[in-house]
């Protein structure tokens, strides 16, 4: 039960689904499926409700704020009434023409009426029950004698509702033809007829079909309210055949319940959609309540501002309006809560304002309004009237509604596509990676255990940007990717083929808007040894290709002949000509043995003694036979052994 303000400024509502602050007045105040009718005992201690499914009646004790008992019934209840001060005498009218009596201990007696009943009333002075229904007769059952009495014969084809005046015991029955027949129980004769169908049609009233009487309620000795099936409420003085006031609900729904509030001269009328409270003299609306579920019945707690509703919903709503009266004695703490709400009202000064920043004002072209009464400075922005904001927004972007409409149409089309045979949707970015993840997710459980539990990144919100933002596109031509992902196996080739097939299927679906069934992915397994061998081979191949591409890039670089080339001569180096440089480069390409032979023939090879005692040697190693027959080569070493004056020995060796 939630506490919140109702539609009247001084009224507060305890509703089941209205506001977040909840107070559970009565524990388990609900039905399994639907509640059809609800009543309060005359002593105010017990609340009884009938509902389904299965058909049952529940009694709640307000002093204990909990369920007292529950009794299941054999059929659904059309309506019921409490004949005693408490729950000790109950009468139920069932949908299968049975009338069931319950006492304090439970089921007491059950009988049957000749026709299907729709309503009944109890005449206390004579202990007679008057039943009306799908018949022109009013059946009378005397509870003192325990037998049926002579029926009252009417001119109506069917009778919908009935009521008995608590002051002078006048019996009234509302008919299907829109008339109200009034009977005097003392003489069992009809004393008056009111044509409510004709009186309910006023200027501007639009009705479909003949209005019939759907609700009836007496107020005092002379007042009466009649509700029609077309949504009008007629207030009568029994001394006149013309209504004093006709109130229209403007919903075209049958009036289901009528109650009078004597302290404020109000009428509480309810249809299946709304409960309206209005003055019975001038029809001025006092308040209105519109629950989320359809209304079946309304019960006003006597002497208070609380009312209960039976809805087409498991929850039975409870509304408390302090302006109608105080809270009942068993929940008097509600008055304290409402007083606190009145003392600390919530600030709603900016309900009709829109908060905008300075950047928003620049986009809307309203910077010239800064400092005017149209903008109210607040924190890092301004408050402006919501109507002005919508008007300027429409002028600044007149096609906003069209864009919104197109987006909604696109969303509806996507929702309808979900009902079709689903294809594998690939993202726009990193399609091959998405294809690989899809295949891994489709692997059987046994193979998933071998490869490890790999989560599907496509369904993870943390990685969705990787498949949406083009900046995260994997560049397969880069050197890093080629070295880290060297394996281009048969699975990869087939994955590319399958990727192209899926892309073609998506394009065909967008063009033709037809249902296409996706093909299952084929899987090929490779052993771990084959993967390792292929990985080594592919790493070598990729390195070889990378070096080849680097050489080609160097060769294809344009030579800038128009600019001179400068060479730096180091200190101690003698520059002869560019021919010497070419000769040195040519000598570096020859083998070491050839260079030594040329130096010996030219007389350049010699031993030099220096002052510091250094020696220069030249040595040659012959052919060496290795242990591996497939590896044989000539290894020639030349080296220089230099001993410095400090006694350090430096050996340089070249292979």
UniProtKB/TrEMBL annotation:
It is found in: Nucleus, Nucleolus. GO terms for biological process: maturation of SSU-rRNA from tricistronic rRNA transcript (SSU-rRNA, 5.8S rRNA, LSU-rRNA). Residues 460-486 form the NUC153 domain. Its main location: nucleus. Residues 499-536, 547-566 are annotated as: Disordered. Residues 349-397 form the Nucleolar protein 10-like second domain. Residues 507-516, 523-532 have a biased composition (Acidic residues). SUPFAM superfamilies: WD40 repeat-like. It comes from the Eukaryota. Belongs to the WD repeat NOL10/ENP2 family. This is Nucleolar protein 10.
């Amino acid at each position: 039960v939630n506490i919140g303000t109702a539609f009247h400024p001084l009224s507060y509502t305890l509703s089941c689904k209205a506001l977040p602050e909840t107070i559970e007045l009565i524990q388990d105040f609900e039905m399994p499926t639907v509640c059809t009718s609800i009543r309060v005992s005359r002593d105010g201690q017990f609340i009884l409700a009938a509902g389904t499914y299965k058909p049952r009646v529940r009694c709640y004790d307000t002093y204990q704020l909990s369920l007292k008992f529950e009794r299941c019934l054999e059929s659904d209840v059309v309506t019921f009434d409490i004949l005693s001060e408490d729950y000790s005498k109950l009468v139920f009218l069932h949908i299968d023409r049975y009338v069931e009596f319950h006492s304090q201990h439970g089921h007491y007696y059950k009988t049957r009426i000749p026709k299907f009943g729709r309503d009944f009333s109890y005449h206390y002075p004579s202990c007679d029950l008057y039943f009306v229904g799908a018949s022109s007769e009013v059946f009378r059952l005397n509870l003192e004698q325990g037998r049926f009495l002579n029926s009252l014969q009417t001119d109506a084809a069917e009778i919908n509702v009935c009521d008995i005046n608590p002051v002078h015991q006048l019996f009234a029955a509302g008919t299907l033809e829109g008339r109200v027949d009034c009977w005097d129980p003392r003489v069992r004769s009809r004393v008056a007829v009111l044509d409510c169908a004709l009186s309910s049609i006023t200027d501007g009233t639009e009705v479909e079909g003949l209005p019939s009487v759907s609700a009836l309620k007496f107020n005092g000795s002379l007042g009466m309210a009649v509700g029609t099936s077309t949504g009008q409420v007629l207030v009568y003085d029994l001394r006149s055949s013309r209504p004093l006031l006709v109130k229209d609900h403007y919903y075209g729904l049958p009036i289901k319940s009528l109650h009078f509030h004597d302290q404020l001269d109000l009428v509480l009328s309810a249809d299946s959609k709304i409960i309206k409270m209005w003055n019975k003299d001038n029809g001025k609306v006092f308040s209105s309540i519109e629950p989320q579920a359809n209304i079946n019945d309304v019960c006003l707690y006597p002497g208070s501002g609380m009312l209960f509703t039976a809805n087409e919903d498991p929850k039975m709503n409870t509304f408390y309006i302090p302006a109608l009266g105080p809270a009942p004695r068993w929940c008097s703490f509600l008055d304290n809560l409402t007083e606190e709400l009145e003392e600390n009202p919530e600030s709603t000064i900016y309900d009709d304002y829109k908060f905008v920043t300075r950047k928003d004002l620049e986009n809307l072209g309203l910077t010239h309004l800064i400092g005017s009464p149209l903008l109210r400075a607040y924190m890092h922005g301004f408050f402006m009237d919501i109507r002005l904001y919508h008007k300027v927004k429409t002028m600044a972007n007149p096609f906003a509604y069209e864009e919104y409409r197109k987006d909604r149409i696109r969303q509806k089309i996507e929702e309808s596509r979900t009902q079709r045979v689903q294809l594998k949707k690939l993202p726009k970015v990193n399609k091959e990676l998405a294809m690989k993840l899809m295949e891994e997710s489709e692997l059987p459980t046994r193979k998933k255990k071998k490869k490890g539990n790999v989560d599907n990144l496509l369904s993870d919100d943390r990685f969705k940007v990787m498949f949406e933002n083009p900046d995260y596109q994997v560049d397969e031509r880069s050197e890093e990717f080629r070295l880290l992902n060297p394996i281009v196996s048969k699975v990869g080739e087939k994955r590319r083929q399958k990727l192209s097939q899926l892309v073609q299927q998506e394009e065909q679906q967008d063009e033709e808007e037809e249902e296409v069934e996706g093909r299952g992915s084929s899987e090929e397994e490779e052993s771990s040894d084959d993967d390792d061998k292929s990985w080594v081979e592919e790493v070598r191949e990729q390195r070889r290709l990378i070096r080849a591409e680097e050489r080609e890039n160097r060769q294809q670089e344009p030579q800038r002949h128009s600019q001179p080339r400068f060479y730096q001569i180091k200190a101690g180096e003698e520059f002869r000509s560019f021919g010497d440089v070419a000769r040195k480069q040519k000598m570096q390409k020859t083998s070491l043995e050839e260079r030594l032979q040329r130096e010996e023939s030219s007389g350049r090879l010699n031993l030099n003694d220096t002052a510091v005692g250094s020696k220069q040697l030249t040595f040659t190693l012959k052919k060496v036979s290795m242990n591996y027959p497939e590896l044989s080569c000539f290894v020639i070493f030349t080296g220089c052994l230099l001993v410095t004056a400090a006694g350090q020995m430096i050996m340089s060796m070249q292979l």
